[in-house]
Amino acid sequence: MGKIINSYILPHPPIIVPEIGQNKAEAAADTVRAVERAAAEIAKDNPSTIILSSPHSPCFRDFVYIANSEYLFGNFAAFGKPKLEFHFENNCNLIADIVKNAELDGIKAGTLSSRIQEQYGIPDTLDHGALVPLYFIRKEFIRREIGNCKLILISTPFIPLVDLYRFGRCIAGAVNSSAENVVYVASGDLSHRLTVDAPAGYNPKGREYDQYLIARLKETAVEDLLNIDENFMEAAGECGTRSFVMMLGALDGLKIKTDIFSYEGPFGVGYLVAKISSPGRDEENSNLENYLYNKKKGLNNLRQNESDYVKLARETVETFVKEKRKITMPPGISPELLNRRAGVFVSIKKNGRLRGCIGTISPVRKNIAEEIINNAISSGTEDPRFRPVSKEELADLIYSVDVLGEPEKISSLQELDINRYGVIVSSGLRRGLLLPDLEGVESPEQQVAIALQKAGIGNSEKYELERFEVIRYK
Questions:
Q1: What is the largest CA-CA distance in the chain?
Q2: What average pLDDT does range 291-298 have in this prediction?
Q3: How far apart are CA 235 and CA 205, in angstroms?
Q4: CA dist., res. 143 & res. 205, Å (int)
Q5: In whole angstroms, how far apart are CA 455 and each of 90, 244, 428, 450, 466?
Q6: Phi-psi region for residue 66, left (φ > 0), alpha (ψ -120 to 50) or beta?
Q7: Residue 43: pLDDT band with limits 50, 70, 90
Q8: For the segment 365-388, what is each residue's pLDDT rounded down to a tens digit?
Q9: How far apart are CA 68 and CA 129, in angstroms?
């Protein structure tokens, strides 16, 4: 019976490779020493296969890509060192079992044919997210006169974190059914926004995010990681969280212990080196099962306490998706919904991410109830940014309804308050609207810029500004 011996979080800045960074690597001396320590422990583990997840491997929105060449090859040519190259045998048999488990769990995953890869220019080579950790691991293998182990390279797609975690469990199931002794390497950097000269610019959320992530890892608070707000992740400019979550999924049901070897951000990017060991099983404590139970409990509580506005929006979408018809006006509906007219926006979220948002700036129906019904259907099935909501998703959706007040013209950004007012920009027949109090919108300038983009109005064009207040129902 196979097992995952140990797991490691390793950063991937090419600058810490001596042949590339040279003297500059000294600024990340703590990271270099910690990665060398991790490599030594991996060599001591002497795995038959390393499974490595990299955020720089070809990523898809709804598909976990696994490199499928018989041999995996890569070099540092992009960093001026083409002769610094690596070859590993791919563990194709274990990949087949992982893919089979993913299919049974309803997760799209697998390899791509050479024809598709060639047609779309998808490389099947080791990216720097894999090469940097492997440089240190291979160096230690050579020092100890250990032969090459096999390798599996997995991408970290933009699917919900819980699905990445579930895919990690698929990896573990395949490993446990094999004869492999596996080390899991989760490649990834933390925030890229720690300083003013950082690659992605400065954002105070960067350091806050890194501290939060490390604290959750130390506490093995896996549920908290599964619930991380993706707007928080985006503000921090991180790249490793999905890789780490996939790794943790492969350890679900195990007692785990996290040892932080080092953390620093010398170039405005957070570098974390850590070891996650698993001394034994914890059959009664699956983080996934706990997460799903608590999520269902939270959603049930929302349903029981939702306003009439939100209840009407939810029942409208559920009826339309299940029965392909518009809902009949429910009996006993609040008179306020029947007797008032206003612009209405219906927003739908899934796993903390926007799933649809459609609305009307001014009323076009005879009352708010009909406004909600029509906009809820449009939000769930006609938002051009998303595919239509399916029956399987309905239980996971969270709704909100914004009832708009009358717009008033303003002459400058100083009259905006992103938490209180939404904004309307207009130029001729083009109009764009952004609601107030949205996650990720942190200034009136940003609020207006997004509204202009939605309207197709250039920043240099003349446009008019209006503001409005909303009542948000949840």
A1: 81
A2: 89
A3: 6
A4: 41
A5: 49, 38, 11, 9, 14
A6: beta
A7: very high
A8: 999 999 999 999 999 999 999 999
A9: 17
The angle that helices 368-381 and 308-323 make with each other, rounded to 10 degrees, is 50
CA-to-CA distance for 272 and 210, rounded, in angstroms? Answer: 9
> Would you state the structure tokens that stand for residue 313, as one six-digit string?
């929006």
The phi and psi torsions of 169 (rounded to 5 degrees) equal -65, -35
Distance CA 374, CA 363 (A): 11
Average pLDDT of the chain is 94
Strand partners, 425: 432, 465
- What's the CA gap between 168 and 240, in Å, rounded? 15
pLDDT per position as a tens digit, 392-448: 999 999 999 999 999 999 999 999 999 999 999 999 999 999 999 988 888 999 999
Using the Cα atoms of residue 33, residue 37, residue 42 and residue 44 in order, give the sign of their dihedral.
Answer: positive
Residue written as token pair 């087949």: 96
Phi, psi angle pair for 469, to nearest 5° = -100, 160
- Of the given ranges (163-177, 207-221, 286-300), which has the lowest mean pLDDT? 286-300
Burial of 49 (0-12, 13-18, 19+ CB in 10 A): buried
Which residues make Cβ contacts (< 8 Å) with residue 168, sequence separation at least 6? 245, 246, 247, 248, 249, 250, 251, 252
Here the tokens at position 48 are 């038959």
Q: What b-and-e string marks burial along 11-33, b requiring 16 or more CB atoms within 10 Å of the CB?
A: bbbbbbbeebbeeebeebeebbe
Q: Rounded CA gap, 161 and 35, in Å? A: 26
Choose among 160, 275, 286: nearest CA to 223.
Answer: 286
Do 33 and 262 touch, CB atoms closer than 8 A?
yes
Residue at token pair 């038959």: 48
Q: What are phi and psi of 442, to 5 degrees?
A: -120, 0
Structure tokens at 117: 């890869």
How many Å apart are CA 19 and CA 15, to the nearest integer?
Answer: 9
Q: Which domains does the chain have, with CATH numbers?
A: 3-290 (3.40.830.10), 306-473 (3.30.700.20)
